[in-house]
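sry for the spam today, last one i promise. struct tokens for design, 462 residues
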């Protein structure tokens, strides 16, 4: 008798699935520190007891249960969940109850391995009798990270809006930190202040988030930017601005990228990392783009049934796209009123940078589209260097490197690849130190050419 796919891979259906997680302890792998905390707060707001996993303590366990062919973020997140569950089992002993937990591991339906992380990690959890009954749930890029299948519909609609707003707020907290910390009057002032602001935001989101009254949250963003501005030592000259692009997990997870932002700051740079909001906006943008193409084709074929169904899909996606653009601008404006943080790149601008598909095409998709577009946009905006941060062997990042390296070299823009797999590369520091030196020279030559370079402007506008 031959088995059906469903029987063969039953565990991938039964224990990697979308279901209502209300009342469970949702285990969230840590990624960008501010965004992870605020994501957990959003889940709390709708009645899900979410917990951000302690990170990087279990890397050796993650490596032990992988073959080495997996992407580095897969090893880190696997190590985090196994470390947590082992500790929890030790702490609770016989009272440990696997039914209480759900492991949350989002996926993408793109061409690379991210779509398989949760299946692969299922196989590993199944090797432990005590963890076999812990289900894995996910949201997917397939339906633009909809949560309708993991919580009640009414909660999902609130969660979606709240989540988007808090992700943008997390991006802004990062940008305030990166704008102020290199020039702070006293070491540590910015980090401790932003951490306190984060705690206030988490409390607000948890207690009042579901009201979708965002004024209180926006006021905190404005106050945070306004106070943080006073930490800047205005006697210090503006440093060269470095844009970090690359794979979303490694570029935003400080332990995985060996704290590259702080390292670049230590060597004399100011840094801005591609945001989480950029990825969320891209997912919606790309969905609208595909739906528009479907509608156009239906129109050309005079297939009116397909045309109507295409429009039915496209209209809500377009509404969501403009909602996101409007909200993002509204929140950034609150911070920009007080402090000149870096704005985020609209996705349409990044696509425009592809020069009508000459450099890369959004039809191919993946994070390469964003990394290539953002690097060129950085160049256009007056950055003094670009770092491509990614997991060793990451497929889209290798594509970005292949396009960006020759292109930026030709344009005499300092550029460096920074691949990570958890190993310490003895020459990494010296390579980044040299890179920052080149960025400083780049800034100097721009300044001497009297270009209207943003990075050369003074801190506080008169
Ligand atoms: S984006 Fe890179 S790191 Fe992530 S799954 Fe794809 S190949 Fe792996």
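last one done:
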């Amino acid at each position: 008798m031959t088995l059906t796919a469903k029987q063969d891979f039953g565990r991938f259906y039964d224990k990697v699935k979308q279901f209502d997680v209300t009342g469970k302890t949702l285990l969230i792998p840590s990624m960008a520190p501010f965004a992870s905390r605020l994501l957990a707060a959003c889940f709390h707001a709708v009645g899900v007891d979410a917990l951000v996993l302690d990170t990087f303590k279990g890397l050796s366990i993650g490596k032990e249960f992988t073959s080495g062919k997996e992407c580095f973020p897969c090893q880190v997140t696997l190590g985090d969940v196994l470390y947590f569950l082992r500790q929890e089992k030790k702490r609770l002993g016989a009272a440990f109850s696997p039914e209480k937990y759900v492991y949350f591991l989002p996926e993408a339906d793109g061409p690379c391995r991210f779509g398989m992380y949760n299946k692969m990690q299922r196989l590993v959890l199944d090797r432990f009798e005590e963890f076999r009954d812990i289900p894995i749930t996910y949201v997917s890029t397939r339906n633009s990270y909809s949560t309708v299948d993991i919580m009640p519909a009414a909660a999902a609609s609130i969660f979606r809006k709240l989540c988007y707003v808090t992700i943008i707020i997390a991006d802004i907290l990062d940008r305030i930190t990166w704008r102020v910390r290199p020039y702070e009057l006293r070491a540590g002032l910015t980090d401790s202040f932003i951490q306190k602001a984060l705690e206030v935001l988490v409390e607000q989101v948890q207690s009042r988030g579901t009201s979708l009254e965002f004024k209180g949250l926006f006021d905190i963003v404005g106050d945070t930017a306004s106070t943080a501005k006073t930490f800047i030592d205005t006697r210090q000259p503006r440093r060269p601005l470095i844009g970090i692009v690359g794979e979303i997990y490694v570029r935003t997870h400080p332990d995985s990228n060996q704290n590259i932002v702080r390292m670049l700051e230590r060597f004399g740079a100011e840094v801005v990392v591609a945001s989480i909001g950029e990825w969320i906006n891209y997912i919606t943008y790309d969905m609208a783009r595909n739906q528009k193409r479907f509608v156009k084709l239906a129109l050309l074929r005079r297939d009116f049934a397909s045309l109507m169904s295409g429009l039915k899909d496209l209209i809500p996606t377009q509404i969501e796209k403009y909602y996101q653009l409007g909200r993002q601008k509204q929140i950034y404006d609150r911070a920009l009123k007080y402090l000149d943080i870096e704005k985020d790149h609209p996705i349409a601008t990044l696509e425009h940078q592809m020069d009508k598909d000459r450099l890369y095409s959004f039809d191919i998709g993946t994070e390469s589209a964003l990394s290539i577009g953002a690097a060129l946009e950085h160049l256009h905006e007056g950055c003094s260097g670009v770092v491509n941060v990614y997991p060793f062997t990451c497929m889209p990042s290798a594509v970005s490197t292949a396009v960006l390296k020759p292109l930026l070299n030709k344009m005499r823009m300092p550029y460096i690849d920074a691949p990570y797999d958890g190993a310490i590369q003895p020459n990494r520091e010296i390579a980044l130190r040299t890179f920052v030196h080149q960025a400083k020279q780049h800034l100097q030559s721009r300044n001497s050419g009297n270009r209207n370079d943003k990075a050369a402007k003074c801190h506080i506008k008169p």
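The radius of gyration is 23 Å. ok im logging off now
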